[in-house]
Design goal:
The chain has helices at 6-54, 56-65, 67-72, 74-84, 87-120. The protein has 121 residues and is mainly α. The protein has one domain (6-120).
């Protein structure tokens, strides 16, 4: 026959384990979020430099300035745009923003669960 306080002790152990897991996950996610925020800033600067160096912005402005010339040879112009697009900078920026937003999402999720369990206690 189980003792009277067995259920309460089991639930307390489960809650303590959940609390330790939340703390562990947050201690892993915070550095990831900080690193990805730093990397997002660096990759944004790199992408801006690549856009400036590739001339992509100049080609796009040409499309708005002289649309008839662009439309006369639109296929070559599309290839020119695709060739001058700085894909590496865009990819690095997108990857760092993806990791940053994902880690912030999980941090918010774990903080909400920690706050809701603290209110219940």
């Amino acid at each position: 026959m189980p003792s009277d306080g067995l259920y309460a002790r089991i639930m307390a152990r489960i809650e303590a384990h959940m609390r330790r897991m939340r703390i562990f996950k947050l201690s892993v996610l915070w550095p990831i979020a900080l690193f990805s925020a730093f990397f997002a800033i660096v990759s944004l600067q790199y992408a801006v430099q690549e856009f400036a160096a590739s001339g992509f912005v100049d080609y796009v402005s040409l499309a708005f300035a002289d649309i008839r010339t662009v439309m006369a040879s639109w296929d070559e112009f599309a290839l020119l745009l695709a060739e001058s697009l700085p894909l590496f900078g865009i990819t690095m920026l997108a990857a760092s923003l993806f990791v940053l937003l994902g880690s912030v999402r999980f941090i918010i999720k774990f903080m909400r669960s920690a706050l809701s369990s603290a209110r219940l206690a």
